[in-house]
Design a protein that fits this description.
Blueprint: H1 3-24, H2 28-45, H3 47-60, H4 66-89, H5 95-101, E1 102-105, H6 107-115, E2 120-124, H7 130-139, E3 144-148, H8 154-166, E4 169-173, H9 177-186, E5 190-194, E6 203-208, E7 211-216, H10 218-226, E8 229-238, E9 241-246, H11 259-276
Parallel strand pairs: 1-9, 2-5, 2-8, 3-4, 3-5
Antiparallel strand pairs: 6-7, 8-9
Helix pairs in contact: 1-4, 1-8, 2-4, 3-4, 10-11
């Protein structure tokens, strides 16, 4: 990295951090609507992403008319802006403030799995607010780590890692995630993995909304190898709160040691969550690229 790149990364990171600090300082009565408005503005500016989201929604829901598709795209951007305001709050967020905005269902399932001593793997998706979806376990007394892709900007990546780790979530870069995740789970701890992005290296194609999509096999492989409990975690907006649901553990043994079979089951469960309220998912991602 040359001096010009270092300067550019520093300035980009400084601007992003100042923007997030200002956004996060807004109280809820104005911060949430400001976030929603910023999301809609972003969707209008990045039209190529809006078009991709609309194309993906049409393919997934061929019965939906154009008016519904357009409304879903707008709501997707609104949710993304709202999630941005929520993320901006994290540096100063307290546990009490968090649980005033979040309701968790199924926490007893995690406690039961922890008592078995084999570790827990949580698979989640880019649904509603994935940053807040991880926090509930750390705030509930679990030792939590999450797998994250490194940002291109190393300065901003370091900022994100610090924000997450300050709230009890250890971050494993995706390139070393299998080794670190295996060690972590064997120690009886909780590992969170987002499973709805396109992954070709170490991934398999499984059905997702009726089309094959490259998907990570990491949760399946770790569960098969360690016997860890494999729980899905979904999140939806309802009544002004984020409702997080911990789903019953999948029976990884039923896959017969086949990670592709278990990955297809995981992906099917993720699809069912998204179908509950489609605009809360990140449809602008090129999920079905060959």
């Amino acid at each position: 990295m040359d001096a010009a790149d270092r300067l550019r990364y520093f300035l980009e990171s400084a601007f992003a951090r100042m923007f997030l600090a200002g956004l996060g300082a807004l109280p809820e009565r104005c911060g949430r609507p400001v976030g929603r408005a910023l999301g809609r503005l972003l969707g209008a500016v990045i039209r190529s992403r809006s078009r991709r989201a609309a194309d993906n929604l049409r393919a997934a829901f061929p019965e939906a008319g154009e008016d519904r598709i357009a409304a879903w795209v707008r709501r997707m951007w609104t949710n993304l802006g709202e999630a941005a305001w929520e993320f901006a709050r994290i540096p100063t967020l307290t546990r009490e403030e968090y649980f005033r905005s979040v309701e968790v269902e199924g926490l007893d399932l995690l406690r039961d799995s922890r008592e078995k001593g084999k570790g827990i793997i949580l698979f989640a998706s880019h649904l509603t607010n994935w940053e807040w979806t991880t926090l509930f376990a750390a705030y509930s007394g679990f030792s939590v780590a999450a797998v994250a892709r490194r940002m291109k900007n190393p300065s901003f990546d370091a900022f994100l890692t610090r924000v997450r780790s300050d709230h009890g979530v250890t971050i494993f870069p995706h390139r070393s995630a299998v080794r670190e995740g295996l060690r972590w789970v064997k120690e009886g701890k909780v590992l969170g993995i987002l499973v709805d992005q396109r992954i070709t290296a170490g991934g398999v194609q499984v059905p997702f909304f009726g089309r094959p999509a490259f998907t990570t096999t990491m949760p399946a492989l770790l569960a098969i190898r360690t016997g860890a409990a494999l729980h899905g975690v979904s999140a939806h907006r309802a009544g002004g709160k984020i409702r997080i649901r911990v789903h019953p553990a999948l029976d990884s043994a039923s896959a017969g040691g086949d990670a592709a079979v278990l990955t297809a089951e995981i992906t099917s469960q993720v699809e069912s969550w998204i179908r509950e309220d489609p605009p809360l998912w990140l449809w602008m991602h090129d999920r079905w690229k060959p």
